[in-house]
Write a structure and sequence with these properties.
CATH class of the largest domain: Mainly Alpha
Number of helices: 9
Number of domains: 2
Radius of gyration: 19 Å
Number of strands: 4
Strand order of the largest sheet: 1-2
Shape: globular
Structural class: alpha+beta
Largest sheet: 2 strands, antiparallel
CATH superfamily of the largest domain: Winged helix-like DNA-binding domain superfamily/Winged helix DNA-binding domain
CATH architecture of the largest domain: Orthogonal Bundle
């Protein structure tokens, strides 16, 4: 069962939720599936390879180990890719920490026009529309999407670094 779980996590485009294994192993009890999944994580993550399995966005995903991120980042820089601009990253940070938030509120925080950055984030599905604010004009409310959690390897928004952690990381970089 663990070998099949590992293979499914490897090929899945989205994080695999524990409940999805019940469809693959209908004869097994939910407890047996949870136990097999826990044993898979323990054994897979104990080996010294370049990958590990971690919980991301409420499911399980195979990712690279953090100790290899610098080398992976260096490799990825050699490949052409669609990167986010600094304006898009700033806009995304405002949305992630202040959501639900309107375009006017993003402008007030950033002090710069953010509509094109917001459009880019919507196209990449990192941000989604949450509804409308109950004020005059009923502006659109924006928040991060599940794709945001997946893209940044977060299980929930609670995993975002605090402002103090950001300051410490920035100090370490200097």
């Amino acid at each position: 069962m663990q070998a099949v779980m590992e293979a499914i996590i490897y090929v899945a485009e989205e994080p695999v939720k524990a409940e999805q294994f019940q469809e693959v192993f209908p004869e097994e009890s939910p407890e047996a599936i949870r136990r097999a999944l826990a044993e898979l994580l323990e054994s897979f993550n104990a080996r010294p390879g370049g990958m590990w399995i971690r919980e991301v966005a409420g499911g399980y995903r195979m990712t690279t180990r953090p100790e290899h991120h610098e080398q992976i980042r260096a490799y990825l820089k050699t490949r052409p890719g669609a990167k986010l601009s600094m304006a898009a990253l700033e806009t995304l940070a405002v949305i992630a920490y202040k959501q639900p938030v309107t375009l006017a509120e993003i402008l007030a925080i950033r002090g710069k026009k953010s509509s094109s950055s917001l459009q880019t984030l919507l196209e990449r599905k990192l941000v989604c529309i949450l509804g409308r604010k109950e004020v005059v004009g009923r502006p659109i409310l924006y928040g991060t999407s599940r794709e945001f959690l997946i893209h940044f390897g977060l299980n929930s928004l609670a995993d975002l670094p605090t402002l103090e952690e950001f300051a410490q990381m920035a100090g370490d970089q200097l």
